Amino acid sequence: MNRHILLIEDEKNIAKFVELELKHENFQVTVSHDGREGVELALTNTYDLLLVDVMLPHLNGLEICRRVRKKKRTPIILITARDAIIDRVSGLEAGADDYVVKPFAIEELLARIRAVLRRVELPKETTKTLTIQELSINLQAHQVFYKDEEIDLTKTEYDMIVYFMQNLNLVLTRDTILEKVWGYETEVETNVVDVYIRHLRKKLPKEIASLIETVRGVGYVMRG
Fold first, then answer.
1. All domains of the chain, ordered by start, with CATH?
2. Is this structure's pTM higher than 0.70?
């Protein structure tokens, strides 16, 4: 079955171009040109990925991310015309899994889409559960629990905690984390890793968050 992508883009020429390219790559595509309509579609239907422009009429892409993240874990890639780090960090903090900056090559967009979708797929051979202290991760269900209470994480936050727990006591550089969690050679600045670590620590219980230590000048390590 073809993967279904919801494209929310108000520039109709760009939307049509991206839609045709995605269909050529055998994706099923639904298009919305309005933020309010787009978020309603995202919340009432099931999609494999959301491709969302930041600047939209009636409701911007960041707000769409926030509203979707309150109810769903559908992967989200933001399309932004602004290349400033603060704009990209704002998108990631809103719950986006990745972003692409206009003008973009369609090959780059397709690579990012495939990379995000690959991260959704379960490894064929893997331990079904990861545990440390009273934190457990059900890899088949993509759920994280602490003392039997589920912790709500974004897709990228989930991938990050899994990667840390699969590499306990190993110092992981920011570049390595980017490569493994994002799944491709990315041009994302390494400070994006710091943003995600900060959000992940906030969501985890203090006892677990304290296990993720900063190795100054290198990266991070999870002790266990």
1. 4-120 (3.40.50.2300), 129-222 (1.10.10.10)
2. no
